[in-house]
Design a protein that fits this description.
The protein folds into 4 domains: about 5-120, no CATH class; about 135-280, Cytochrome c-like domain (Cytochrome Bc1 Complex, Chain D, domain 2, Orthogonal Bundle), CATH 1.10.760.10; about 285-380; about 385-635, no CATH class. Strands 1-2 form a two-stranded antiparallel sheet. The N and C termini lie far apart (about 70 Å). It contains 29 helices and 2 strands. Helices cover about 70% and strands about 0% of the residues. With about 650 residues, the protein is mainly α. The longest helix has about 45 residues, at about 485-525. The radius of gyration is 32 Å and the shape is elongated. The chain has helices spanning about 5-10, 10-20, 30-45, 60-75, 85-100, 105-120, 135-145, 145-150, 175, 180-190, 205-215, 225-230, 235, 245-250, 250-255, 260-270, 275-280, 285-300, 305-320, 325-330, 330-350, 355-375, 380-415, 420-445, 450-475, 485-525, 530-560, 560-590, 615-635; strands at about 50, 55. A hairpin with a 2-residue loop joins strand 1 (about 50) and strand 2.
């Protein structure tokens, strides 16, 4: 039974606001917390008291009457504040609704709205200072709670017999979906009037949070799926920026944003692993901001090396995990942030004034705010997921297909069909390796930002080196005379000396590189809510890629062999330049190479063009090597004139 509307879905946001506001009225925190707890119980338990305007449990209904009267009375006793009159009016309206046996949804939303307004007018602490320790919580539970609630939390402990009302069943998922850990924390600290639940206010606050976290973990058990969702879905992590959101959020509130079963799984994981909140900074860019602040502090202290490492960590650990998803929604903003990150590291490296570094960090924080607004779940529509999946797969697959098609067409013209299996084996093995990589990254290990960039960087440079060799070789053969003699004699001999395995390796490398990068993008893009759209977008891209491959192979059959080698060599050369830029750019992002930003220089990732001096110089050097190679080949073939112009 989901008792949520737009107002109640904003409860967690109001909690965050309340935690940051100064006390407008010097109310006793315990008094406010008690009122909040009473309202929380009304929101959760009223559906079990009234249904369709009729009382279905006299005991529960009497409790609702008592709790609503107590809450209203306690609100009138709070210190004077600008919001108190409105709170009193809301409390009286709720009392009337309960007396009139109003629908459960109405009473629940009124209770939750009143609770959120109460915290806005009389803020109280809502979160633990430190990450809860569930082992300590389990120990405290066994000592203080298990006798009534049972070791498994089912409310059937040895001392539960005869208690009226019966101890709470913490394994009741429906009830647990509507209860926050803050609510459990309040009950532990203050007890529950009219029940056998005593106060444990003598326990330190952190112990009470440990105990609340442990008792809140009984109802949900799909931990493995929850961890997978948490690690792969940045929009979910964005819902938990800190422990305050974690302690005040309820599964039913999260279920208003994602599918209910998905919300249950996430809570199963987070309530057993609250340390994940601190590790990921809740999926927002808070970790990146923290690292930037630490970098600035280190730079002010004259610790240049530490400042540079922290600035790099802000990118790799704080921002890079969201890079793929942001790239599908706002590629221009992604480019701006990456450029700003590079400029920050360059400013630190060149000992710029502290004011320059500080200004650069302020710019980044503004960009982070823009990015977070784009990354919120509401922006994850089916249409955007379709377009994102389509463009990612088309972009990543096009490079690989161009090379594989050129290799297949080459072998056809060389009349070597028996070697074709090596090329097919290479790209098929790459797809299998990509599947293994996805499984390992999802269920076994985590791929760090540095590892991702290093894999892409070295993979790109290695592929570029091979393509440079192949491109120059093909260019040379485009000028050779007597093609049929060359193919029958020279080519057969070349392909019999292990070159077939060379083709296997090249096919594997170029495809696996693209598969690896596609996995990273899809991991960030995927969610259960947009899965169908992503599959549809991927299918459309695969169909288009297949059509392009078929057209290129069909056209290559009719192409004169000299032109085929000339066009193929040009393709290889262009891809060499592109992959060189991508490789150097990735190594810069991993922190292996320095970055010298080029102001107002365009960034065209698809062509490997980045606004930094190093990748541009590397591409210029490659172009120079290509030019020298063409000149030497031309000099070696002076006087030769191709005689054969027929097709194969």
């Amino acid at each position: 039974m989901h008792l949520i509307n737009l107002r109640t879905a904003s409860l967690s946001l109001l909690f965050l606001i309340a935690a940051c506001l100064p006390f407008s009225a010097q109310a006793n925190a315990g008094d406010v917390q008690t009122i909040w707890r009473l309202l929380d119980y009304i929101a959760v338990d009223y559906p079990g008291a009234v249904e369709d305007g009729k009382v279905i449990s006299e005991a529960e209904y009497a409790e609702m009457i008592e709790f609503s009267e107590s809450a209203a009375k306690r609100i009138t006793e709070l210190p004077a504040a600008s919001d108190r009159a409105a709170l009193i009016a809301q409390a009286n309206d709720m009392k009337i609704a309960i007396a009139d046996k109003a629908p459960a949804d109405n009473v629940a939303q009124d209770a939750r709205l009143l609770a959120s307004n109460l915290l806005r007018g009389y803020p109280v602490p809502l979160a633990p200072h430190n990450t809860p320790d569930l082992q300590n919580g389990a120990r405290l539970y066994a000592q203080n709670c298990a006798s009534c609630h049972g070791l498994s939390g089912n409310g059937q402990g040895p001392d539960a017999r005869g208690l009226d009302p019966a101890p709470i069943d913490f394994t009741d998922a429906e009830r647990a979906r509507q209860r926050s850990l803050f609510g459990l924390y309040q009950v532990i600290g203050q007890g529950l009037d009219g029940t056998a639940m005593q106060s444990f206010s003598d326990l330190p606050a952190q112990d009470r949070w440990d105990l609340a976290a442990y008792t809140g973990s009984f109802a949900f058990d799909d931990v493995a799926r929850g961890e997978k969702i948490w690690e792969s879905d940045a929009s979910i992590r964005a819902q938990f920026p800190d422990l305050t959101a974690w302690s005040s959020m309820t599964p039913v509130i999260l279920a208003s944003k994602v599918r209910p079963d998905k919300a249950d799984a996430v809570f199963a994981f987070l309530r057993r692993h609250p340390e994940a909140i601190a590790k990921a900074s809740g999926g927002s860019l808070d970790l990146a901001r923290t690292k930037l602040d630490e970098s600035l502090a280190a730079y002010r202290a004259g610790q240049k090396s530490a400042a540079k490492d922290l600035a790099l960590s802000a990118y790799l650990d704080g921002f890079e995990p969201f890079e793929a998803l942001l790239g599908t929604r706002d590629a221009d903003l992604l480019s701006s942030i990456e450029r700003s990150m590079a400029q920050l590291r360059d400013a630190i490296d060149k000992n710029r004034p502290v004011s320059d570094v500080e200004s650069q960090i302020k710019t980044l924080k503004v960009q982070f705010a823009q990015a977070e607004a784009i990354l919120v779940p509401d922006n994850a529509s089916g249409a955007s997921a379709f377009v994102g999946a389509f463009t990612i797969l088309l972009r990543e697959g096009l490079e690989a297909i161009l090379i594989i098609v050129a290799m297949i067409a080459f072998l056809r013209k060389a009349e070597r069909p028996e070697v074709m299996s090596y090329v097919h084996g290479g790209w098929i093995t790459a797809l299998i390796a990509g599947g293994v990589t996805w499984f390992a990254a999802t269920y076994i290990i985590g791929i760090s930002g540095a590892s991702r960039e290093l894999t892409e960087g070295f993979g790109s440079l290695f592929a570029a080196a091979i393509l440079l060799f192949v491109g120059l070789w093909m260019h040379g053969k485009s000028r050779v005379d007597e093609w049929q003699r060359y193919i029958r004699e020279t080519m057969n001999k070349a392909l019999s000396r292990g070159s077939a395995w060379f083709l296997f390796g090249l096919a594997f490398l170029v495809v696996y590189r693209e598969v690896f990068e596609t996995i990273l993008f899809f991991a960030a893009l995927w969610s259960d809510d947009t899965g169908v759209s992503i599959i549809a977008g991927s299918g459309a891209a695969l169909l288009l890629l297949a059509a392009l491959a078929w057209a290129m192979l069909r056209y290559s059959r009719k192409l004169q062999i000299r032109k085929f080698f000339a066009y193929s060599s040009a393709l290889m050369i262009v891809l060499t330049v592109v992959l060189t830029g991508k490789g150097i750019g990735a190594l810069q992002e991993a922190g292996m190479l320095d970055v010298t930003p080029l102001k107002d220089f365009p960034r065209i990732s698809m062509l490997g063009i980045y606004p930094a001096l190093q990748p541009i110089l590397a591409q210029v050097l490659v172009v120079a090597v290509i030019g020298l190679g063409f000149w030497l080949i031309g000099k070696g073939h002076d006087g030769e004139r191709p005689k054969d112009r027929h097709t194969v």
